[in-house]
Every structure is written in structure tokens, then in C-alpha cells.
């Protein structure tokens, strides 16, 4: 008979995976539920989208991760609802009972209720979406060269909405692709008319970072030939034109939405348990009103004196909340739990080769050294040695040759009318 406490973790992102690792081989029965069979390293999605690295380099099978674990199991399934009264998680295929439940479902792209945008613009919150962006952008050029359509009508423009780290890094990657790669792949096309456009509701890019980082990133974008539209809000997109609140229109068949995220909420909880689509939790990440249900990472809304509006939805918060909760769950019943306190380690972003900005609590720096620091930090966060080496090799090859061989258009096949 099973006597160990049964802990179910919904979601295998930064928070969920870190919690499972903290509880690994301890006296708990842990089950990780995720609709994908792999963990995804989200900070490098933009490099998959721009053909810099392979999707497999930033994807790690859960079953491989937990292969040597004595207490952790994985189930690939999509959670539909929680039944807190009966301590059940209801999925597509089965029901799972729990002693303690941890929700680590992360967030998804926020289109702010605009269904037209949601249907026609690309988000980038999973590997499939990053591959779809790569497919779509490359197919645009393939169609242009076959159809011999005009390359100056603007339809091939790449428009990125949102000037946070994701938007800025995407813009830099596509600008370098335009400059160094596309003219060699398509020597009979004139890419002078192709515009990489970054639309920002703020006056400067990277608004959450220091003024030095904002100024430098704007300069880097300009040096790369990116058109930066500040103080602009996208109101609609019909598949051919981006409509701005100012009345301007931008022709484009390639629109990537990086302008915000919202929580991946699971059904079964009343609305009053949420703030801005995040579960309200106490300083121990316990959802208020429940004794055995917790939320960690992007989906958790925790007010503290330092962060009265909740913590930023970044990987560092997710990982450290998971570590803190994991240690608390392993304590004996008489031991006091430790409250979570976020220690901001800083922010960083890269804008193409040789160009990056870094804000640390004790120093701010930009340029070549910042770029090396960015590369080193991201390589250290990659899970396996094989993947670290593969990414490092791709980066060095791209650096030396200003090229890569990963511009593959991979489209799922159809069988009986359905994608396989």
C-alpha cells in the first residue's frame, strides 16, 4: 500500500520542472502532467524561429529527464479541470487524485481579446509556434520567387509587435538574416525593400530595463536597419495589413505578436481566486482558501512589500519559487516554512551578434562583453551537455560564416484531412 504523500505537478516549464527536480528521489510520490512530452527552453524560441538553432537543441524529453528517478512519473495529458473538493485532477484521458497539487501552467500569448489578431498573427510560447514562424517566413520568400510577385509591395515585411526582450531579440535576428543570409539564399531577389519593423507602445525598447539599456538597444536596432515605431498600438490585423491606433497601416503577411502574456488558467476555481489571470497565493505559494493547492511561476500572483503588484513573469522567479516550495514541502510537520522573497538578479537581452545589454544589481554594461555574458548564461541554463555543445557549435559556425544550415521548412503531413 502506498504511504508516501502524492504530489501532482501540472506543467513542466521552468517552475514545474524545478519543483520536480527539488523533490526528486525524496520520500514523496510525484507525478508531472504536461500536454507536451518535453520541456522547452523558452528564451531561445526566437533562434528557432529565425533558423539559428534546431528545435531539438532546446527541447528535453521528460521521460529522459526522469529516467533515473525513483519517485517521479510523467504523464502526457491535457488538464481540463480541477476538482478541489474531491482532490482530483481531470484530464482528457483520466482522473488523478492528489494529496497536494501544484499548478505550474505558466502563461500564453495575450491577444487582449482580439480574435482577428489571434487568428492571423503568430504567438511564440512553444516550440511548435516558433517552427510555424520559421516555416511561414521562409515560405513567403519561396512563394515570391515562384510567383515573381512584386517585392516592393510590403507584403513580405516582418512586423514584430512588442519591444520587450522577445520582440527585440526577434527583430535583431531577422535583421541579421536579411543582411547576411537571405541575399545568398535568394540571389535574384532585391531585399532592399524588405523591412523589419518593431512596433512598440512605449517610447523606448526594453522599457523594463535601465535607461542605458534602452538607449543602447535602440541604437543597436537602428544599426541593424530595424524600423522602430515607438508609441504605437496595434488595433487590428486582417492578414494583409497591420492597423495602428494612429491611423497608420503597415502591409505585411508576417506578423509576430510579442506584446504580452496572460496566465494559463485551469478550470475549477472561482473568479475571485484570480488577479489578472493569475492565482492569488500567499508567501508560501499556497492558493488562498485551499490547504493543499499551490501555484508557482508565471501563473502565481503574490503580493509582497517589494512587489505590491505581483512578481515579474520571468524564469528566475519561477525557478526560485519552485525551489522554495520544494524545500518547504520536504520539511517535517513541526518545522516552520520559509516565506518566498524574490531577489532580482538582473535582466539581459541580445540584439544580434556582438550586441547585448545587461543590467545587474551592481553593474550595467553593453556591447561585446555583454553578448558573451548573455551566451554564457544561456548555455549554462541548457539542461544537457549534448544540447549545450550543439548550440555552442551552431553559434560559433554562424559567427564565423554568418550563416547556418537550419532554414528548413517542415510542414506536418495530412492524413484523412487531419494533421499528423
Automatic annotation (TrEMBL):
The chain crosses the membrane at residues 371-397. SUPFAM superfamilies: FAD/NAD(P)-binding domain. Its EC number is 1.6.5.9. InterPro entries: FAD/NAD-bd_sf (IPR036188), FAD/NAD-binding_dom (IPR023753), NDH-2 (IPR045024), NDH2-like_C (IPR054585). Keywords: FAD, Flavoprotein, Membrane, NAD, Oxidoreductase, Transit peptide, Transmembrane, Transmembrane helix. Residues 345-399 form the External alternative NADH-ubiquinone oxidoreductase-like C-terminal domain. It holds the Pfam family NDH2_C. The keyword Magnesium does not apply. It catalyses: a quinone + NADH + H(+) = a quinol + NAD(+). One of its GO terms (molecular function) is NADH dehydrogenase (quinone) (non-electrogenic) activity. Signal peptide: none annotated. Residues 6-322 form the FAD/NAD(P)-binding domain. PANTHER family: EXTERNAL NADH-UBIQUINONE OXIDOREDUCTASE 1, MITOCHONDRIAL-RELATED, NADH DEHYDROGENASE. Belongs to the NADH dehydrogenase family. This is NADH:ubiquinone reductase (non-electrogenic). The lineage of its organism: Bacteria, Pseudomonadati, Bacteroidota, Flavobacteriia, Flavobacteriales.
Amino acid at each position: 500500500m502506498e504511504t508516501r504523500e502524492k504530489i501532482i505537478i501540472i506543467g513542466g516549464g521552468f517552475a514545474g520542472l524545478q519543483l520536480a527536480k527539488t523533490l526528486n528521489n525524496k520520500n514523496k510520490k510525484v507525478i508531472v502532467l504536461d500536454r507536451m512530452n518535453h520541456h522547452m527552453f523558452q528564451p531561445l524560441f526566437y533562434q528557432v524561429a529565425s533558423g539559428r538553432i534546431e528545435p531539438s537543441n532546446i527541447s528535453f524529453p521528460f521521460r529522459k529527464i526522469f529516467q533515473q528517478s525513483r519517485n517521479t512519473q510523467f504523464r502526457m495529458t491535457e488538464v481540463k479541470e480541477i476538482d478541489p473538493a474531491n482532490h482530483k485532477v481531470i484530464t482528457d484521458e483520466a482522473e488523478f487524485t492528489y494529496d497536494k497539487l501544484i499548478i505550474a501552467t505558466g502563461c500564453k500569448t495575450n491577444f487582449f481579446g482580439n480574435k482577428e489578431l489571434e487568428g492571423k498573427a503568430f504567438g511564440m510560447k512553444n516550440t511548435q509556434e516558433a517552427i510555424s514562424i520559421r516555416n511561414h517566413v521562409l515560405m513567403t520568400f519561396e512563394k515570391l520567387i515562384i510567383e515573381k510577385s512584386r517585392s516592393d509591395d510590403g507584403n513580405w515585411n516582418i512586423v514584430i509587435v512588442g519591444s520587450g526582450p522577445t520582440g527585440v531579440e526577434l527583430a535583431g535576428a531577422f535583421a541579421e538574416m536579411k543582411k547576411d543570409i537571405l541575399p545568398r539564399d535568394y540571389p535574384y531577389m532585391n531585399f532592399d525593400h524588405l523591412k523589419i519593423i518593431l512596433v512598440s507602445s512605449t517610447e523606448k525598447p526594453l522599457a523594463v530595463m535601465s535607461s542605458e539599456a534602452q538607449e543602447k538597444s535602440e541604437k543597436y536596432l537602428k544599426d541593424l536597419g530595424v524600423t522602430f515605431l515607438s508609441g504605437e498600438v496595434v488595433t487590428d490585423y486582417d492578414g494583409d495589413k497591420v492597423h495602428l491606433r494612429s491611423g497608420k497601416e503597415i502591409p505585411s503577411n508576417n506578423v509576430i505578436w510579442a506584446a504580452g502574456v496572460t496566465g494559463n488558467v485551469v478550470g475549477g476555481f472561482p473568479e475571485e481566486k484570480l488577479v489578472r489571470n493569475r492565482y492569488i497565493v500567499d508567501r508560501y505559494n499556497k492558493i488562498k482558501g485551499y490547504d493543499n493547492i499551490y501555484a508557482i511561476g508565471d501563473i502565481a500572483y503574490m503580493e509582497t512589500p517589494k512587489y505590491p503588484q505581483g512578481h515579474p513573469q520571468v524564469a528566475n522567479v519561477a525557478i526560485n519559487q519552485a525551489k522554495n516550495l520544494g524545500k518547504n514541502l520536504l520539511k517535517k510537520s513541526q518545522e516552520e516554512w520559509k516565506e518566498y522573497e524574490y531577489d532580482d538578479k538582473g535582466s539581459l537581452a541580445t540584439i544580434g551578434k556582438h550586441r547585448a545589454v545587461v543590467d545587474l544589481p551592481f553593474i550595467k554594461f553593453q556591447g561585446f562583453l555583454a553578448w558573451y555574458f548573455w551566451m554564457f548564461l544561456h548555455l549554462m541554463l541548457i539542461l544537457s551537455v549534448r544540447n549545450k555543445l550543439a548550440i555552442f557549435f551552431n553559434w560559433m559556425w554562424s559567427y564565423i560564416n554568418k550563416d547556418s544550415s537550419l532554414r528548413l521548412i517542415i510542414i506536418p503531413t495530412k492524413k484523412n484531412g487531419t494533421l499528423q
